[in-house]
Amino acid sequence: MKKIMVILLCLVCFGCNNEKVVNSENVEHEEAKLELLGDDEISLNYNEEFIDPGYQAFNDMNENVNDLVKVSGKVINRPGEYTLVYELNINDKVITKERKVIVNKVEALENASYVPVLMYHYFYDDEAGETGSDTNYLAKSLFEEQLKYLKDNNYYFPTMKELSEYIDGKINLPSKSIILTMDDGAESNYRIAYPLAVKYQIPIIWFVVTSWTDPNLPYQQEIINSGYVSMESHTHDMHRAGCSGMMHGGLFQCIDKEEGIKDLTTSKEMLKTAISLAYPFGDYNDSTKEMLRETGYELAFTTEWGVVKPGMDKYALPRIRISDGNSLQTFIDSIS
Fold it and tell me: Which is it for strands 204-208 and 80-90: parallel, antiparallel or unpaired?
């Protein structure tokens, strides 16, 4: 009997020890992983909202770690290709996935007979008690009212490249096309106009004097990377008087050609993607046009009133000045 008991105890102990070994060996570890939900490439129509299908991330214990994933890049509501990058940094290992989002070009069946290009300068926050010193300043509340009208009425906002091709008759643009431009790149553009452009998802174009503001500074790049601000040229350092008796006296009209080309080239190199320019004081002549052609600019804008039409002189394009104090109906009439 004692012999049988000893054998049974040994078997039980052997079984216990063996179970511990099995449990230890059965703990499975997997590789951390990051998976995209939905398609790796998504195609959208203009004005169609992008909704990210999302992702799933797991650590080596197969536990969900979505909170560790960082997403960079953004999709904005204008034609183009956008890339979203998803990054999981875990256990000294970085896993990345990319998703391409394509916003398709607008197919305009009937070409716009004209495109208004609006000209703004400065802004003031009337809601905070600020006032403008002249009609070049526009109240924040009026600007927001105008943006809301354009958004609610489904206006299309062409790029400068699209406008250039439209003038040449290479593409059609929707009947309700419009471009918003702002001269000088003043502080109020950053503080007031930019946040509203993002809020209403309306792209705006700043004609900046590159000797006044460096577009390569980090905060400038952040604004450009938002997708709602494009910077074009207002010259590098020719926003000065110097031509007595010539229109408004803008220096650009009578500057030495070599010096003028150097200025335009400097501005273009700093801005990187600029293809258009707004004349300082609106002053231009045959000499300014020739310098722009030689330095690779495709378009140039004056301060003369009017709308852009196919076949126009691409180096003497008109704009519509937006002044303070006018009603929304006046704004609507001016672009219609």
Answer: unpaired
CA dihedral for 156, 49, 78, 271, sign (positive or negative): positive
Q: What is the pLDDT along the chain (336 residues), one digit of tens a residue?
A: 445 454 444 444 444 444 444 444 455 668 999 999 999 999 999 888 899 999 999 999 999 999 999 999 989 888 889 999 999 999 889 999 999 999 998 888 789 999 999 999 999 999 999 999 888 999 999 999 999 999 999 999 999 999 999 999 999 999 999 999 999 988 999 999 999 999 999 999 999 999 998 888 888 888 888 889 999 999 999 999 999 889 999 999 999 999 999 999 999 999 999 999 999 999 999 999 999 999 999 999 999 999 999 999 999 999 999 999 999 999 999 998
Q: Which residues pair with residue 304 across a beta bridge?
A: none
Count up the domains in the chain and report the number.
2
- Cα Rg of the chain (Å, integer): 30
Q: Which domain holds residue 87?
A: 33-103
Tokens of 263: 């200025």
Rounded Cα–Cα distance for residues 180 and 258 (Å): 32
CATH number at residue 37: 2.60.40.10
11 belongs to a structural domain: no
